[in-house]
From TrEMBL, chain B:
It comes from Caenispirillum salinarum AK4. Residues 9-250 form the ABC transporter domain. Transmembrane segments: none annotated. SUPFAM superfamilies: P-loop containing nucleoside triphosphate hydrolases (SSF52540). This is ABC transporter ATP-binding protein. GO terms for cellular component: plasma membrane.
Length: 336, 254
């Protein structure tokens, strides 16, 4: 909906560059014999995916969810539970056989995430603003404690997938680069789908409802269905990210659904900037990159990280995307 | 369906209270195709509450709203809009981040059943673009198509407000003080636009500017404390002693 006055070159820098970094960095790491760094970049891709799904409902739909960690954890547990039963050869919930292939676990994660997001969205969307934030947080906490109470799946300790990752169409995924490539492809796919939907009538309605809901009703729209749909789509994608995270770590625990993860996703979105979906990728690169670097120097990295984030948000308004846009102000041509 | 004089929107004995405050007290009126029906009354008479009940954003405590003879009392605002009821708001209610053209396209799209709702970019849809451009030109703001709503001047916002209401070719138009805050020339221009519109639709006009009301209206209904004290052609209303006492006299005083 927003007028896109970007020249091709600016788009390449803003949108293409972070993806290129994510694609090239693991290869470079391998080349200099630092293969242990690959999962760091894979984490960035996974968090970028989750943050992008949040970005979609936040920037277009105005829905500030502080509960998206719930879907992240749900996706992780779809992998963990299926994998445990596949290894034990015991029946999974609903009498299903265990599953241990991404062709099943990823779509399943999406479906479960989206399905749970529907009532969550429906409840949360009865409120707006700060209340919306608090209700999403409360619902996510419910999921968190539910997961803690799952004795069969390790309770607080979660599930260690020491037997290994999901396969992909029967192929082993033990290679770190292969898993990274999968995450990157899914991130690109999600980006493509979400940007199409943003520009489609569906996205217009969400955008209109964010800007003036009463007016939308007077025009004959019923925005709630669109908003719930967007929330469900977002929840499903975050669950896919959680499913990928489980495969990166070969471990799931209720920690995936801790409220700080929701906060981290919000920070990524704001850090990256709301102007374009690529902000989520920038945000993930910057936040997780900073974390990694600061941890090298001190275990009290959070003390530095906190003020640093405040400074970035204060001085680079609009996040990384906004910063890049301002760098390119002079090149603005068609204001259409 | 555009038979002249056919009743298109009717209120029958509407009642609405907010606690002890009676905002609408037995309001009945009929808006006919081809007519401009003005609803006037002093501040606090319940004009906006009446509009809200007709539009469907407020549910009456009692009474009925009929659209083309069918009851729409239980239909929500979006449902009534889909039937062909459009409104403009007293305070311009726009989409601040959208351009004028995008705003009107969104209004046009509301009336469509889109087969590609999720996938095809809406901005490239000519079937939205053309009617939207047309609506902007009709109101004389075609040159502002690419301007963001938040960057428009007050008078231009009022016109965009009208363009959005008209874009769907409604059968009834509810105008809540469309001239509020407009200058002399703008008021005259918008009056001409409204006058030209009535051929195709019924118009309910809430307006403070009595010159405008008596120049445009075919029927005037006077509301005081939520109740109708008079209704009829402007010439009759102007001379009605009750109306003079309750309303016009205080207007003359200032």
């Amino acid at each position: 909906m927003r007028p896109d006055a970007l020249t091709l070159r600016r788009r390449l820098i803003r949108d293409g560059l972070p993806m290129l970094l994510l694609a090239v960095a693991p290869l470079a790491a391998m080349a200099v014999d630092a293969g242990w760094l690959v999962p760091v970049f894979t984490r960035m891709a996974v968090f970028a995916l989750a943050a992008m799904a949040l970005h979609f409902i936040l920037s277009i739909g105005g829905m500030v969810s502080l509960g998206h960690a719930a879907f992240f954890a749900i996706g992780g547990y779809v992998v963990g539970i299926g994998s445990q039963h596949a290894y034990d050869e015991t029946p999974a919930p609903l009498g299903l056989p265990g599953w241990n292939d991404m062709l099943i676990s990823l779509p399943a994660a999406f479906a479960v995430g989206a399905l749970i997001a529907v009532p969550f969205g429906w409840l949360s969307l009865r409120t707006r603003g700060a209340y919306f934030i608090m209700i999403t947080l409360a619902l996510a906490q419910m999921i968190f404690y539910l997961l803690v109470s799952l004795r069969a799946y390790g309770g607080e300790d979660g599930i260690s997938m020491w037997w290994g990752r999901n396969t992909l169409a029967g192929l082993e995924m033990s290679d770190r680069l292969a898993l990274h490539a999968v995450c990157l492809v899914i991130l690109a796919l999600a980006w493509w789908v979400l940007s199409r939907m943003t520009a489609a009538p569906f996205g217009w309605v969400l955008d209109g409802a964010r800007q003036n809901e009463a007016r939308m009703r007077a025009l004959g729209y019923r925005p709630l269905a669109y908003q719930i749909g967007a929330f469900a789509l977002s929840g499903g994608i975050v669950a896919v990210a959680g499913a990928l995270m489980a495969n990166v770590d070969e471990f799931v625990s209720p920690g995936l659904g801790h409220w700080t993860v929701s906060g981290e996703l919000l920070v990524i979105v704001i850090l990256g900037g709301l102007g374009s979906l690529s902000g989520a990728v920038w945000g993930a690169l910057v936040l997780l990159g900073l974390e990694e670097v600061l941890m090298e120097f001190t275990q009290h990295w959070a003390v530095i990280m906190g003020p640093l984030l405040v400074v970035i948000v204060l001085f680079a308004r609009g996040g990384v995307g906004g910063f890049l846009d301002r760098l390119n102000m002079g090149k603005r041509h068609d204001d259409a | 369906m555009t038979t002249p004089d056919a009743p298109v929107l009717e209120a029958r004995d509407l009642h609405k209270s907010f606690g002890a405050l009676v905002a609408t007290n037995g309001l009945s009126l009929t808006v006919r195709t081809g007519q401009i029906h003005a609803l006037i009354g002093p501040n606090g008479a319940g004009k906006s509450t009446a509009i809200a009940q007709l539009a469907g954003s407020l549910r009456p405590d009692a009474g009925e709203v009929l659209f083309s003879g069918h009851s729409v009392t239980r239909l929500d605002e979006a449902g009534r809009a889909r039937l062909g009821l459009a409104r403009s708001f007293q305070i311009s209610a726009l989409f601040p981040e959208m351009t004028a053209l995008e705003s009107v396209m969104l209004a046009v799209q509301a009336g469509r059943r889109h087969h590609a709702r999720f996938w095809k970019p809406a901005s490239a849809d000519d079937s939205l673009l053309e009617p939207a451009r047309q609506a902007l030109y009709t109101l004389g703001i075609g040159h502002l198509a690419r301007t963001r709503a938040s960057d428009l001047a007050h008078g231009q916002r009022r016109l965009l407000e009208m363009a959005m209401a008209l874009a769907r070719e409604p059968r009834v138009l509810l105008l809540d003080e469309p001239m509020a805050g407009l200058g002399f020339v703008e008021t005259r221009n918008l009056s001409a636009v409204i006058h030209a519109l009535k051929a195709d639709m019924g118009i309910l006009l809430v307006e403070h500017d009595m010159d405008v009301v008596f120049r445009l209206a075919d029927v005037v209904t006077v509301l005081v404390d939520g109740a109708v004290i008079a209704s009829g052609p402007p010439s009759v209303i102007r001379d009605d002693p009750d109306v003079r006492r309750a309303y016009l006299s205080e207007d003359d005083a200032c």
